[in-house]
Amino acid sequence: MNAHAKIKYWLEENRQRGTRLLQQLVQEGSIRGNESSAQAVIIEKCRKLGLSLDIWEIGKDQLIKHPAFCSDRKDFSGNPNVVATLKGTGGGKSLILNGHIDVVPEGDRNDWDHDPFSGRIEDGKLFGRGSTDMKGGTVSLLLAMEAIIMLGIKLKGDVIFQSVIEEESGGAGTLAAVLRGYTADGAIIPEPTNMKLFPKQQGSMWFRITVKGRSAHGGTRYEGVNAIEKAMIVMTKLQELEKLRNLRIEDPLYSKIPIPIPINIGKINSGEWPSSVPDIAVIEGRMGVAPDEEMKSAEKELEQCLKEAAQSDNWLKKNPPQAEWFGGRWLPGDLEQDHPLMTVLSESFEAVKGKQPAVEASPWGTDGGILSKVGNTPVVVFGPGVTEAAHDVNEYISLQEVFDAAEIIALAMMEWCGINQ
Amino acid sequence: MNAHAKIKYWLEENRQRGTRLLQQLVQEGSIRGNESSAQAVIIEKCRKLGLSLDIWEIGKDQLIKHPAFCSDRKDFSGNPNVVATLKGTGGGKSLILNGHIDVVPEGDRNDWDHDPFSGRIEDGKLFGRGSTDMKGGTVSLLLAMEAIIMLGIKLKGDVIFQSVIEEESGGAGTLAAVLRGYTADGAIIPEPTNMKLFPKQQGSMWFRITVKGRSAHGGTRYEGVNAIEKAMIVMTKLQELEKLRNLRIEDPLYSKIPIPIPINIGKINSGEWPSSVPDIAVIEGRMGVAPDEEMKSAEKELEQCLKEAAQSDNWLKKNPPQAEWFGGRWLPGDLEQDHPLMTVLSESFEAVKGKQPAVEASPWGTDGGILSKVGNTPVVVFGPGVTEAAHDVNEYISLQEVFDAAEIIALAMMEWCGINQ
Predict the structure, then answer these.
(1) ipTM over 0.90
(2) What is the three-class DSSP state of B285?
């Protein structure tokens, strides 16, 4: 029995235990500010595996002052970052395995068919907020490590497992890990890619645009200026900007993606009274950033677009719309497609699935941007689960994919870090 | 000294008392649900004048089931309607003098230069929420009645003074008075017309339009349907509908008004998260109704417009925007310009001001719609104060106009009701 066969067999034999671990993690709902109980499950697991643990509360000066820091959270205490290292024997390449423990809010519970934190299993799927994004992927990582440890396989390079907070809100957890010194020769982030390899990731950042009007009674609305009408001019301009920006994208990885770097208008609020002319409209959204683009230059492009919108209208000329950059901010990722880590992951995928993996660019930002741009660590995003299920009601993950991903990642670990025969 | 000269003199001599009455009324802020203390001031005044008082809580079955009833208020108890009648000697025409006691909320107090309920006087202006809309007008009515009573002038026809609640929210107070039997040969409503005569009034009604989308992650926004984008299609159609409807208005009374019957989009809310595609957008607004138009036919026109908007877009075709008619609803008013009440008021105006009054159509609905359409009572809206000040911060009224209006209304009362020599 070769090492691959042993891993396959071990994963089959431990399917129930692995499933139970994922169930536990989902049941410990870890919405922002409440990550500690899910982290406790991770810590217990890592302790049992004999890994060297580093548990710390993020939020020190160095982090908050870093230009890539992005968070509106005031207090990180009680909800630590966890890093657990499997020390190699030396002479191999190191590998970061990064998963985030925070999940987005469940939304309206009535929209769910069952309790959003049930961890209910049906037809080979495990349901619950965070199952796909991304506790399923984290369990793939832990299973891959456990298989290697339990099978007595000795890796040369270090494997650095990370369970971080704050990915959904801008990546402060991974940034804190990078600043604490955790960088490596490569990293895998098992976000739900539907088992595709994503060497490039779309970055993104949130914007808020304030458009002014002048209030009046609705019956004499011509005495005022309707902020909603003016906001429509701005939003039409943003739609044009999105078209322009996407026409420039020529990377074949994006050839199948309708809008590689969308500008999403996610929110608008204006007005307080049906029969008054509203004097302010606030638009919030998310601007996609191309893998090879600087965040600053994307910012400038949107700000320039607002200036042009202002020039097209006499009122806006005197009352130009204002942009703020707030909240979420994810650096893009940009790894060459023939990077050795891509080769290793592709070969491992083929060994398990009997076919070549699909390679695409991710339509969303991940902590990969921070790991690669700030931590100089080459990153591939690859994991179980489908994007569409993430953030949605009745979020679920296919358990088969969790175990397939574990198998592929275990093979990749051996290949990347090297084995002491 | 003829009757006019006596009235003029009486008003001059009682300027301080009249001003103090208005100040008291403004100081008793009477926002919806808190009308009782301002009504108490009115009741005390009417009692001293020896008027026959009818004080009652509205909200009985007959009112609530009436097709013109429009209110989302559940409880009217403790905040009565007040009607005070000055009985005539007989043989004359009756006259309703109608003022509403409710005022709109003051908004953000910080935007006011002084306490919004101060009743502060400066440069001949009295400041405060409700000063113009329409406690100033109500004081004109009370002063006109008091002058006539105190000067011993005996009117033939009845004068029915009304201080009603709920005008700002759809006219349930005046409707209740009509249903209680208070109709007359004519009515004056001293809303702030800037001393112009308004024989016609724009009606209006509130609408709420719900536009559906489909949620998705902002990074793959093409997997969803943005409710804000679809709402923009609807709002553009509403703008076109407004143009069409106003092109049809040929009444010369509207010749100086840029948009005789506006469709005001007063409010939009959509989305909860910048990086999600919003799945619902809710638009609220106010539709102006022409003096000679049926409310129902205006409703149908907007609903038809939504159907056309739906036809222009594949998504909307399957997910048509829905309209609701909620909240405020004011019937239009439509009196012929050569109605005897117009003549009487014009002549009284000329006797006081030495020039012809301006005659226009009001850009907003008043309780005149209910009085004329439900109560069959011919209505002219005429009063002190400027529309622009109503509902705005630092609302104020010119005290001179309050007394001028009182003088004009007193003359009109004598002319309309007739005098027993």
Answers:
(1) no
(2) strand
